[in-house]
Amino acid sequence: MARYGLTFKNRAVARLLPPESAALEAVARDVGIGVSTLERWRSDALAKPAREQVWTAAARFDAVLTTAVMDEASKSAWCRAHGTYVQQLAAWRTSATQALAEPGEARASPLQTQAARRRIKELERELLRKDRALAETAALLVLSKKVGAIFNMGEAE
Description:
mainly alpha; 3 domains; 8 helices; about 75% helix; about 0% strand; elongated
């Protein structure tokens, strides 16, 4: 009996559930799983609360496109009907916008890069200073223990 990972199951089941709602036979043929197994996985997923269901990337993008023209009230109603939150839609929209950004838009500006480099140098200098102070403190501690051991040894004689 083959065992499948949770992510594999979730992806297959997500294709069966709304908003994608692909045909059971088509998904079975695509993923190479028997129809009865997929039916069982789907019924298990439907038994879970709607908040725990997994959305595929295509389904999330479709949800963003569908709700983009809606006002807040209808967007909230859509979210309740599909078992998601308005905040999730906003996060999905941000993710899609970042993924579709031009490579130049995604890069930091030269001023931001310069400021970041300057900050990194300051932090590296501070780290080096603290490392040296820690090494000096450790050396003093070792020396004080050695001195204490020498003088305690002399008292015993």
